[in-house]
Design brief:
heterodimer; A: alpha+beta; Phosphorylase Kinase, domain 1; Transferase(Phosphotransferase), domain 1; 15 helices; globular; B: mainly alpha; two-stranded antiparallel ribbon; 8 helices
Chain lengths: 411, 192
C-alpha cells in the first residue's frame, strides 16, 4: 500500500466511521467500485478500530517499568513454583485473570496456567471455577483445550492447561488473507469440539475469536470452556462478558458482538445461543467484518437483536452462506437445533466443493446436463421423424397418429 | 544538575513559533534534560506499585521550565508537542535498555488505566508500539505525530491541532484511523 493509497483509505475510513452500517456500505460501494484493494483496507481498518477498544486511549501510566511485566501480582508470580510448575512469563490477560506460561518440571512440558482474577474471587465464582475445571477436563476432544490440573495458590484459584504456541483466531485472520475453504476447514474442527461439549450437556457461552487458539501448526483449539459464563437467569451481564476487551462508553467491544439475541435480551440460554455465536465468528472470518457492526455496545446489541446481517461476499459458496445465515437466525427455533447438525452441514460444504475442484463444480454439472439434454432432444426428434415416416409409409391415406402415441410406442 | 531558567525556554518557544528553526534545536536539549532528570527520579523507585504518568511528567517539566511566566496558549501547546516527542524517546529507550540488561523475554508493557472503571485496562508493549509508529510514519507522518502527541504527550485534540496546524476534525480522524492501523499492525506482529 503506497502512502497515497494509505491516505485515501484513511480519508474514507474517517468519512464512514460514524455512519450507520447501511449508509457506510453504500458510500464504500461507490467509492471503491473496481478497487477491491481499497475496500479491503477500509473494511479491515473498521474492524480493527472496533476491536481496538480503548487501545492507546490515555491516560498512559507506566507501572514501575520493570522488565518482567507490569502488574504487582504479575511480577510477584514470575519465577515462582506451584507444585511441579515453574512460572516463566505472562502470556496474556483476559477477563477471568492472568495467563502465564509455565514449565511442568515433572513431565518437562510447557503448560499454561490461568489464575482467576482477584475481582472474581468470591465464593460462588470459585465454586464455578472449580466445577468448570472439572467439567472442562472431562471433555476429551482434540479441538478443546486440554485441562491438566486445577488448584489454589495463596488463596487464588488456578487452572493448568496445555500450552498452545501460536495466537488466537484474531491473529490467524490478520496474518494473511484466508480463503473461505481455509476458514471452514479450520473452524469445522472447533465446531465439532463444541458439538461434543453440547452432547455432554455443557455450554460454552463465550464463543469468540479470542477464545479460539490456533497453534503454529494450524491446529485449532477451543479454550475458556464455560469459565466466563454469566449466571443463568440474571440480566445480561455485559461488563462481565466483555471483560476480555476493556472498553469505555463509545468504544466497541469484544463479546457484545458475539452475543445471541436471547443473551442480549437476558433470556435463558441453551445450545442454540452458542450456535449463534459460532455463526458470528464464521461470518466475521468470511466477510472480514462483523455481522452486527455498531458505534457503541448499545448499537451492537440493537443490531444483534433487530438487524439482519448483510449478505456474505459473493465468492462464498451459496451452501456455506446458507449455513451461516441459518446459524444467525434471530429466533433460536429457526436456527440449527443442534451443533451437530451444523457440523454435518459444514462438512458437507467442504466435501461438495472438494469433489469438484477449481470452482467448476456447477459448470461441470451443467455441461453434463447439457450433453444429456442434447441427446434426449436428438432422440425425440429422431423418434418423431421416424414415427411420422413410418406412419406415412404405412397409411398414406389416413391421418398421422398422434405423436404421443409414437412416443409411447418407443418405450 | 543546574536548574534551567525559564526565561530562555519562553524566548526560544516564541522564536520557534515565529519561524526560527534554530530555536527548536536549542530548545530540545533543554527540555530533554529536564524530562530525563524527572523521569529518572521517578523510575528509580522500584516499588512495584509505583506508577509513572508521562502526562504528569510533561506537566512537571513544563511548570519547571515555563510555568512561572505567563505564556500564550499556543506556546504551551507547542511545548507539549515537543515534550511528547521526547517522552516517547525516553520511555522507549528506558524499556529497551532494561530489556537488554535483564534477561530477555517477559512482557514489558505499560498499562493504560481507565479512570472510569478500574478493571478496564489494557497492556501495551511500548517497544512494539514504537516500531509500529515508525512504520506508520513512513506512510503518513502526520498520523504518527498525532499519536505521539495524544498518547505520549497527553495533548487534547485542540492542542494537537494547534501544534500541527491542522483542523481538530482532521486530528480526530487521523487519531481514529491511526488507532485502528496500529492495533492491526501490532496484533499481526504478535502472531509472527
Amino acid at each position: 500500500m503506497t502512502p497515497n493509497e494509505h491516505r485515501e483509505a484513511k480519508e474514507l475510513f474517517g468519512k464512514v466511521l460514524d455512519l450507520e452500517p447501511q449508509s457506510c456500505a453504500a458510500i464504500l460501494d461507490e467509492a471503491c467500485a473496481g478497487r477491491p484493494h481499497l475496500r479491503h483496507e477500509v473494511d479491515s481498518l473498521l474492524v480493527a478500530y472496533q476491536r481496538a477498544g480503548t487501545f492507546i486511549d490515555g491516560p498512559l501510566v507506566a507501572h514501575g517499568l520493570s522488565p518482567d511485566g507490569v502488574r504487582t501480582t504479575a511480577e510477584t508470580m514470575m519465577g515462582r513454583t506451584l507444585g511441579p510448575y515453574r512460572i516463566d512469563s505472562i502470556i496474556g490477560e483476559g477477563g477471568m485473570g492472568v495467563v502465564y506460561h509455565a514449565l511442568d518440571r515433572k513431565l518437562n512440558r510447557p503448560v499454561a496456567i490461568k489464575f482467576l482474577s482477584d475481582e472474581l474471587a468470591n465464593p460462588s465464582a470459585r465454586r464455578r471455577f472449580q466445577r468448570e475445571a472439572q467439567v472442562a477436563s472431562s471433555l476429551n476432544h482434540p479441538h478443546i483445550l486440554t485441562v491438566h490440573d486445577a488448584g489454589e495458590f495463596e488463596g487464588r484459584q488456578y487452572l493448568v492447561t496445555e500450552f498452545v504456541d501460536g495466537g488466537t483466531l484474531i491473529d490467524w485472520t490478520h496474518a494473511e488473507p484466508r480463503t473461505w475453504r481455509q476458514t471452514v476447514e479450520l473452524l469445522v474442527d472447533v465446531a465439532d469440539g463444541l458439538a461434543a461439549a453440547h452432547q455432554a450437556g455443557i455450554l460454552h457461552r463465550d464463543i469468540k475469536p479470542a477464545n479460539i487458539l490456533i497453534a503454529k501448526s494450524g491446529y485449532a483449539k477451543l479454550a475458556d470452556f464455560g469459565l466466563a459464563k454469566p449466571n443463568e437467569g440474571s440480566t445480561p451481564d455485559a461488563t462481565h462478558a466483555r471483560a476480555e476487551v476493556p472498553t469505555r462508553a463509545g468504544a466497541v467491544v469484544g463479546s457484545v458482538g458475539y452475543m445471541s439475541p436471547e443473551q442480549a435480551l437476558g433470556r435463558a440460554l441453551d445450545a442454540r445461543s452458542d450456535i449463534f455465536a459460532f455463526g458470528v465468528v464464521l461470518y466475521e472470518c468470511l466477510a472480514g467484518r462483523p455481522p452486527f457492526p455498531g458505534a457503541s455496545d448499545l448499537d451492537v446489541l440493537h443490531a444483534v437483536v433487530y438487524r439482519q446481517a448483510e449478505a456474505l461476499p459473493a465468492d462464498v459458496p451459496l451452501s456455506l452462506r446458507m449455513v451461516v445465515e441459518k446459524a444467525l437466525e434471530k429466533d433460536p427455533s429457526d436456527r440449527f437445533q443442534s451443533m451437530r447438525d451444523m457440523v454435518v452441514d459444514l462438512r458437507c460444504v467442504v466435501r461438495q466443493s472438494a469433489e469438484a475442484p477449481a470452482s467448476s463444480a456447477a459448470m461441470h454439472r451443467w455441461n453434463r446436463a447439457r450433453h444429456l439434454l442434447a441427446a434426449v432432444a436428438a432422440l425425440v426428434v429422431f423418434a418423431a421423424a421416424s414415427a411420422l415416416f413410418v406412419s406415412r409409409f404405412r397409411q398414406p391415406a389416413g391421418p398421422p397418429p398422434p405423436l404421443v402415441h409414437a412416443a409411447h410406442q418407443l418405450r | 544538575m543546574g536548574e534551567v531558567s525559564s526565561k530562555p525556554v519562553t524566548e526560544l518557544l516564541k522564536s520557534w513559533r515565529q519561524g526560527d528553526s534554530t530555536a527548536l534545536e536549542k530548545l530540545l536539549p533543554l527540555v530533554y534534560n529536564e524530562l530525563r532528570r524527572i523521569a529518572a527520579r521517578q523510575l528509580r523507585r522500584e516499588r512495584p506499585n509505583h506508577t509513572l504518568q508521562p502526562t504528569a511528567l510533561v506537566h512537571e517539566v513544563y511548570l519547571k521550565l515555563v510555568g512561572q511566566h505567563r505564556i500564550e496558549w499556543q506556546n504551551r501547546a507547542q511545548f507539549y508537542g515537543v515534550a511528547a516527542q521526547l517522552i516517547r524517546r525516553i520511555l522507549v529507550d528506558h524499556v529497551r535498555n532494561r530489556r537488554t540488561v535483564k534477561r530477555g523475554g517477559g512482557a514489558l508493557t505499560l498499562t493504560l488505566d481507565d479512570a472510569v472503571s478500574e478493571p478496564a485496562r489494557q497492556d501495551i508493549d511500548l517497544v512494539k508500539l514504537d516500531d509500529a509508529l515508525l512504520s506508520l510514519a513512513t506512510k503518513d507522518e502526520q498520523q504518527s505525530r498525532v499519536v505521539e502527541m495524544r498518547f505520549f504527550g497527553g495533548l487534547s485534540i485542540e492542542e494537537t491541532a494547534e501544534v500541527l496546524g491542522i483542523s481538530p476534525s482532521t486530528v480526530k480522524r487521523d487519531w481514529a484511523a491511526a488507532k485502528a492501523w496500529l492495533y492491526r499492525d501490532m496484533s499481526t506482529r504478535i502472531s509472527s
